[in-house]
Amino acid sequence: MSESNGRHAEVAGGGFAGLTVATALAQRGWSVTLHEKGDELRAFGAGIVLWHNSLEVLKAIGAYEPLLPKSMVPPFYETRMHNVTQSKEDFWGLEWRTMTRQDLHETLVDAARNSGVDIRVASEVVSADPAGSVTLASGEVRKADLVIGADGVASKVRDSNQFELERTKSRDGITRLIVPRRKEDLGPGEWDNVIDFWNLEPRVLRVLYVPCNDDELYLALMAPIEDKEGSAVPINYDVWVESHPYLAPVLEEAAKIHGRYDGYQTTVLKQWTKGRIALIGDAGHAMCPALAQGAGTAMSNAYTVAVAATEAANADLPQALVDWEARERQITDECQERSAWFAETRSMAKGNQFTPQMLETARYDPTTREMISVG
Ligand code: FAD
Ligand code: 5PR
C-alpha cells in the first residue's frame, strides 16, 4: 500500500473499468471505496481478447504476471468465410492475449484488494453530484474528491446528471459461452488459433472461436436480432450445426448451457466529465465488439484518469478531468466508429481486417502515451 495523499475517491461499478481505476488510484495514495450493486463480485460474459493497450495497463497495476498462466497467445487470428480461410493475422507481433472474463475479473479483484481498495458488494450508487458525492440506495451520502462512474451501459452516475448522449443499436447480436475445448474431438486442424467462422449464405450465422487456455473455449455465436432461431437461447443446436458441421463437438457443449443473447450498442457522449465526476468504460463509451476493445479502452481510460486526477491539485481537479478527456478521447471515439462500421457492414468476414490503422487503439500504450508502429 502506498502512502496516503489525503484524498478520497468513490467508484461506482466493479467491472473491468471500476476495478482498474480503483487499483490505480489506491496505488497512488488515494483512499478508494468501490461500490458493486451485485451481491457478489463476478464477471458477466464469457471470454475476452486483450491487446497491447490494456496489457500495458495490467503490467502497470501488477495484474499481468498472475494472468499469464491463465491466458494464452493464439498463433493466429484466422478468418474464414464459408469455411474457406481468408486470412491468418498475427498483428506483426503486437502483443495480444485471450482469457476468460472470470480469470481477468478475479485477477483485478485481487489487485484492487492488495492495493487497499475498500470493495463493497450489494452497494448500489443511485446518483452522483458533480460537487463531489455519491448517494447509495441505502440513502447514505458519501463525499469524495473524485467520483468515477464505471457502472456500465445503464450508468446511474451518468443518468442522474443529464449527460447528453447518442445511442445506436445494431442489427446483430451474440450469444457468448465458455465450453470445454474438446480439441481431440474436433479432429486435425489449427485449433489453437482464434477462428472467426463467417457464414453469410444461406443465412448469417457466425461463430467466433476463441481458445482461452488449455481447457476453456470461448464461443461467440452471432445472428441477426430478427433471426429468432439463430438468436434463441439455449442455442438451437440443429440450426448451428447445419451451418458449422466441423464444430459439432463444441456446439454440442454450447447447447447444454443456457447462455444469454445480447444486442450491440454504441453510446457516444458529448462529454465524459462533469465537475468532479468522470465516466469510464461502457458508462461513457459503450461500443460494438468488432475490434474487441470495449474493455481495452475501459481499462486504458481508467488508468489515465487515475494518473490525471493524481497529478492535479485538488482544487483544479474538474479542469484536470476536462484536459484528460481532451487528451485521451480521440482514440476511443475512433475505435467506437470503426467497431460500429465493422458491425454494420459485417466486413470482418473478408479477413485482413486488422490493418495498422484498425489496430491504432491496440497499439497505444496508455502508461507512456506512446504508439507502437506495426506493418
Ligand atoms: P461492466 O462490465 O458493465 O461493469 C459495470 C459494473 O457495475 C457491473 O459489475 C455492474 O453490476 C455494476 N453496476 C452497475 N450499475 C451500478 C450501480 N448503479 N451501482 C454500483 N454498481 C453498479 N471488450 C474487449 O476489450 N475485448 C473483447 O474481446 C470484448 N468482447 C466483447 C463481446 C461482446 C459480445 C460484448 C457485448 C462486449 C465485448 N467487449 C469486449 C466489451 C466489454 O465487455 C465491455 O466494454 C466491458 O466489460 C465494460 O466494462 P465496464 O467495467 O465499463 O462495465
Ligand atoms: N471480437 C471479439 C468478440 O467477442 C466479438 C467480436 C469481435 C473478441 C463478439 O463477441 O465482432 O462481434 C464481434
Considering the chains and any ligands shown, give keywords for the structure.
single chain; 375 residues; alpha/beta; seven-stranded mixed sheet; 10 helices; 20 strands; 28% strand; globular; binds flavin-adenine dinucleotide; binds ligand 5PR
Summarize the structure.
Helices cover 29% and strands 28% of the residues.
Question: Can you give a write-up of this model?
Answer:
By secondary structure, the protein is of the alpha/beta class. It is 29% helix and 28% strand. It contains ten helices and 20 strands. The protein has helices at 16-26, 52-60, 101-114, 156-159, 237-243, 248-255, 282-285, 294-311, 317-345, 360-363; strands spanning 8-12, 31-35, 47-51, 77-81, 84-89, 96-100, 118-120, 125-129, 133-136, 141-143, 146-149, 165-180, 194-199, 205-211, 216-224, 261-269, 273-274, 277-279, 364-365, 370-371. The strands form five sheets. The protein has a seven-stranded mixed beta sheet with strand order 5-4-13-14-15-12-16. A hairpin with a 4-residue loop joins strand 14 (205-211) and strand 15 (216-224). Helix 2 (52-60) packs across helix 8 (294-311). The longest helix is centred in the last third of the chain and has 29 residues, at 317-345. The radius of gyration is 21 Å and the shape is globular. The two termini are 41 Å apart. The model has no long low-confidence stretch (mean pLDDT 97). Bound molecules: flavin-adenine dinucleotide and ligand 5PR. Residues 49, 174, 176, 208, 220, 222, 289-290, 292, 348 line the site of ligand 5PR.
